[in-house]
TrEMBL record, chains A, B:
Keyword ATP-binding: yes
Keyword Nucleotide-binding recorded: yes
GO molecular function terms attached to this record: aspartate kinase activity; ATP binding
Name of the molecule in the record: Aspartokinase
Native species: Allosediminivita pacifica
InterPro entries registered for this protein in UniProt: AceGlu_kinase-like_sf (IPR036393), ACT-like_dom_sf (IPR045865), ACT_Aspartokinase (IPR054352), ACT_dom (IPR002912), AKii-LysC-BS (IPR041740), Asp/Glu/Uridylate_kinase (IPR001048), Asp_kin_monofn (IPR005260), Asp_kinase (IPR001341)
EC numbers for this chain: 2.7.2.4
Pfam families in alphabetical order: AA_kinase, ACT, ACT_9
Family per similarity comment: Belongs to the aspartokinase family.
Amino acid sequence: MPVLVMKFGGTSVATLDRIRRAAKRVGVEVSKGYDVIVIVSAMSGETNKLVGMVEETSPFFDAREYDAVVSSGENVTAGLMALTLQEMDVPARSWQGWQVPLKTNSAHSSARIEEIPTDNISRKFGEGMKVAVVAGFQGISPEGRITTLGRGGSDTTAVAFAAAFGAERCDIYTDVDGVYTTDPRICEKARKLDKIAFEEMLELASLGAKVLQTRSVELAMRYKVRLRVLSSFEEQSDAAGTLVCDEEDIMESKVVAGVAHSRDEAKMTLVSVADRPGIAAAIFGPLAEAGVNVDMIVQNISEEGRTDMTFSLPINQITRAEKALNAAKDSGSVNFHGLVTDDRVSKVSVVGIGMRSAAGVASKMFKVLSDEGINIKVITTSEIKISVLIDRKYMELAVQALHDAFELEKEG
Amino acid sequence: MPVLVMKFGGTSVATLDRIRRAAKRVGVEVSKGYDVIVIVSAMSGETNKLVGMVEETSPFFDAREYDAVVSSGENVTAGLMALTLQEMDVPARSWQGWQVPLKTNSAHSSARIEEIPTDNISRKFGEGMKVAVVAGFQGISPEGRITTLGRGGSDTTAVAFAAAFGAERCDIYTDVDGVYTTDPRICEKARKLDKIAFEEMLELASLGAKVLQTRSVELAMRYKVRLRVLSSFEEQSDAAGTLVCDEEDIMESKVVAGVAHSRDEAKMTLVSVADRPGIAAAIFGPLAEAGVNVDMIVQNISEEGRTDMTFSLPINQITRAEKALNAAKDSGSVNFHGLVTDDRVSKVSVVGIGMRSAAGVASKMFKVLSDEGINIKVITTSEIKISVLIDRKYMELAVQALHDAFELEKEG
């Protein structure tokens, strides 16, 4: 029998009613002849409640105990889903991570999957079981302790199972009905994409289109797992949602697939830094140690052996960054004349694998923004993405203008 | 190092504050030089919540999935307790049932413990760990699935660990401060017992003095585990609570240790049953199959080869019993002229190992009740217990009169 992996996130299993609705979807796939592996998250709110209790108990907690506590939410959902399927006369049973066993390394709270033996579950499929319900987000370390994969790890669990079992597809059921050309709350012309390439999805995910966890997309790309994102709140056909797939599976792709944005960015400039080899490491080393997620980096050559260094970061990490940089200055490892922070910027990006072969996307983007009177503060580019930092007040306008200019409302 | 087992019930770990208080008690025992095994229940209310979700999902649930779901509450408490101890600089870690592994048979939802290997936890004690926190109530079947021991199974877990590790004592922390001569809500002269024999405790527990689960007392008696019941809500000395121990450990015991009661009983009489061999089996077989917990049974020889058969049962099982008996009558396996039900009776018992060697307890009991004008409807006796069924309205009066007559308010 072909294997299908179906993953249901927290909102899709938030109540017993919703679990029933999800189970019905599973039943439909079983009736098509699939052996189904269902990956479930904790009922929505549960993991946050458990994390809250751990943090209140122990601010600098032992991650091994944290994992043992927070993994329990998924166990509950897995059992309830198996029972629901049984009630519908679908032969099903639950597996907790250690029962599979889903083997990970020992990096508690952010463990990496090392192996998923398939014999146990495959044997049950051979015996007539139709659905294996697996608690997502969790595994077991070489020491026999429970590990978790980090928040959103259930997506990664699903893709890893799809890869291990050679599944025909991995369907991620969530509370949105697919991946859009841009955020529909900002741009009413936003259109759902039928297909998107892994690389594009990666850029969109890391840019704040929080549909899929980045790691799961990376894993899917590496193992060529066809990922489908679709809503658990609507009746679904086989063509529903958005298929995240290999570039070659997309017949004709547009130059630009989507416009992404990240609202709460900040820009920090170190004014007049000594321009010497190793200066970037001296600046960004301490920032990384302080847990600052530096994103865009631009260095301007100024004069007399001194330069200005500008970077962007999430707005809520400004204090942390300032502390780290002032400490570095005090210790003498970095010298700068001033630190200028702008906390009213946003990032807007256009993403598309078609850019690789099409020239002129950057200049078109800059012209569109210029025509709207929007000043660009920082620019970075990759093979399939161009990002700019602009004043936050222009963010919506920029997204809409770019969506129009690249005609994203039209079908591919 | 000597090993001490400490068990904390649901109300003793109901909040993070209470877990902290319990952890402090554990810390005190560690500072005395014990290696401590802590058995925890789920935070109070959690197990009921999980059971409710399972029953709503599937009225005739797969007990394997039930166990997988309801065991999760204990896992949460175990992790939180380990974290709390670590915060107090007490080296601790948590174990879930399958990690020990606490091996049981495959009787899901009411599994029996088969083996508790000690090497894993003992090695950790050898490496400097001071407290092993174990999730109570759960184990693992030969098939590798999670089992539970039935409600209240955490007491049983605690005693089994004490037996396996040769613990010096097994302290059961609960919301009462010990075992009383009778229910203090009924008789204000009720006195806390310092010591009670296993056999007495068994009779009291099964008679509704719900301090300890019957199975845990049986297990403690078999393996001679010294059990102490004490309150987690009071400062405790080494002599606090009630020690449940071997008869020989009690120097001078009173003839009667306590007066027990069970309020919601019913009495059922089958009038004029054919008095032939096998008739008792023909009556009580169908009742057992219907899940009726028959307690006292009395048969009166009447005349002409017919007899009346009377038995007591919990009041909420009357309908079930009537159905089973009428079905048996319809099938022709039992014949009786009438079925008389009295749902306004209660059971009162006096319990004490001293009865074995002292005569006259029964006649004294009957005289006390008679002096109060209380009519006895059914009598049963064992070596260490005399029980009577009386009108419910006299129950409090009977308990108080017996408590007075046997001078239970006075120290041993």
